[in-house]
User: Fold this.
Amino acid sequence: MSELTSCNYCNLKRIKASAKKDGKKVTQLRDSTWGMGGVNVYVHHPRIVISDIPGGEDGDRSKYRVAWMMEISKSCCC
Assistant:
């Protein structure tokens, strides 16, 4: 990992802090269908259940997707 690049753990932590400040929720789903696996990160209103939105990652839920991460470590590895 480069000194100038933050790890996915820290990126997710930053996304969660921003969402909390805005009264939103963060959901992580392993719903990527394009062949690389990983985790899609969605930021949405707390009353929305992202996994219930039809169409998968390319359907209506795509408007809530803020990031895709191949792996998310258990702690910072920057």
